[in-house]
Amino acid sequence: xxxxxxxxxxxxxxxxxxxxxxxxxxxxxxxxxxxxxxxxxxxxxxxxxxxxxxxxxxxxxxxxxxxxxxxxxxxxxxxxxxxxxxxxxxxxxxxxxxxxxxxxxxxxxxxxxxxxxxxxxxxxxxxxxxxxxxxxxxxxxxxxxxxxxxxxxxxxxxxxxxxxxxxxxxxxxxxxxxxxxxxxxxxxxxxxxxxxxxxxxxxxxxxxxxxxxxxxxxx
Length: 219
Prior knowledge:
The protein has helices spanning 18-29, 43-53, 69-79, 94-103, 115-126, 134-151, 159-169, 174-181, 185-199, 204-213; strands at residues 9-14, 34-40, 57-60, 84-89, 105-110, 131-132. It is α/β, with parallel strands linked by helices. It has 2 domains: 9-149, Rossmann fold; 159-213, Arc Repressor Mutant, subunit A. Strands 2-1-3-4-5-6 form a 6-stranded parallel β-sheet, sandwiched between helices. The longest helix is centred in the middle third of the chain and has 18 residues, at 134-151. The termini are far apart. The model has no long low-confidence stretch (mean pLDDT 86).
């Protein structure tokens, strides 16, 4: 009884270095479950061949002539959303990592990664999973943590706190602020402490600076 034929994972290699393409193609073609269906030497070719060859996965370099890997991924995604991407590059700086992931990469590997890791990434991505180098994963987690902190909505300042803050920005002291707003100095101090807490600052100068940066007040 014949065993059912296993469908191979169709790969398109996009890299501007012929030696890299040839090496990857030879290495991957030896794997029984992987088929290299084509190669592209720049971003435009990657876009064209993705539309013609319908690969399951594209191994995408980032820096290529005419159209870079990031833009190529974006354009391919609009026409072929089923295509998955593995970035294979020499660059591990934050800008490339986050732009690549935002463009849809499911795995991000450096070119000096062991071949077993590349095989593992291809098979994982073909199943809908993701794989990112441990060192790069740390940067991704740090970035998401930073974005989380940045997107947390600060507590809204009350109308009275905004009035106090505006007078602070003019350099007025607690006594003058109290006089202008017809409140006690102790109440002014309470409002100022609340402003500090909501803006995450520790002094008047920082409060005014942070408020200007956030567009809460305008000088």
